[in-house]
Amino acid sequence: MSLTDTYFAELSGALRAAGIFQPCLVLDLDRLDHNIAAIKAKFATGLDLRLVDKSLPCLPLIQHIRAAFATDRLMTFHLPISAEMLKAFPDVDLLLGKPMTVAGARHSLTKGVLNGLGDATSRIVWLIDTEERLAAYGALAAELDRELRICFEVDVGLHRGGVSNPDALARAVAALANYPRLKCEGVMAYEAHIGHIPKLLGGPAKARAKAVSLFRQYVACLAADQRKILNLGGSSTALLYDSWVGANELSIGSAFMLPTDFDVPSLSQLQPAAFIATPILKVVDVRLPGLDERSWLLQKLGLLPRRGCFLYGGKWMAKPVYPAGMKTDKTFGFSTNQQFMALPDDASIGANVGPDDYAFLRPTQSEFVLQQFGSIQVYSGGKIAAQWAALPFS
């Protein structure tokens, strides 16, 4: 199931048959199912999967993966999306993946998107990264006269915030005695940095071992009834672990779609499952705007492509994959209206590189990009089999 000319020709035919002649996001359901099976095969025995909603911002998409893993755990990052998760999935338990301002939490619970959801909000676990935020949430729980579930964000080397060391966590856990309406559920750690540590500085294996050691030290600060959530991992790291890691759940989101930012060794068995498809509007012999007579010289010097095309739309967070050899070029700048793309010198109109043919790009990430098109075209069995609505930004 490699990305061949035949694959994109078949996908183009499916888009034509479905009457789709504008930019769209295509999800290859068969490739997604391959990725689900591959992740299940490598996922640590005895640990639960926590799906990351920001990377899979589509209710049918989340439900499809949830069903495959029989998981009721979600990690959520944006309260309007959190509210949609609570309404759509009565059994899910939500862990915030980033700390929310206490003012934002108060507003959402009393006047905003979580207001009116009643007991459903008891399925949210708020993230605490500092003793100051702990005190603020303790005051909020007292003000609202309700129990708020919390989890501590702990730093295992990423240095993007969170409780900075096990001693600091021990102090925060002790301080919980001052906030009787807060209930500690556990800790959350993220270690996306480990795959980027150069060998000269110890490499990924050493960084992973250090992160795991720190994680276990943080867990040791918790009482037995405070260890419901021992969360670790992300798409690029979760499959590196076995059950020995000391966590009871691992987070994964983007890996199921495999955008280009996740082309990493730990995910080598997965396949790209999401593409931006857009019609080619024009194929041109490139001439430099306003400087026609100098174009040949720049082309001879390799500073200007000889052939190019203009796409319907553009400036997406995505990398071109088809037609073969198509690439971005700064000649005409970037455009959300008609994006110019360079083509190989021998590209000729007619060989799937002409007006009304389709160009395809792979998103660099799945979060945000999947929401840009309103709906997702679901490709399966050689045809567009369904349309799934993406979740709105707010």
Automatic annotation (TrEMBL):
Full protein name: Alanine racemase
PANTHER family per the UniProt record, alphabetical: D-SERINE DEHYDRATASE, ZGC:162816-RELATED
Domain Alanine racemase N-terminal: residue ranges: 28-255
InterPro entries in the cross-refs: Ala_racemase_N (IPR001608), D-amino_acid_metab_enzyme (IPR051466), PLP-binding_barrel (IPR029066)
Pfam families xref list: Ala_racemase_N
GO biological process terms held by the UniProt record: D-serine catabolic process
GO molecular function: D-serine ammonia-lyase activity
UniProt feature coiled coil, ranges: none
Gene3D superfamilies, sorted: Alanine racemase
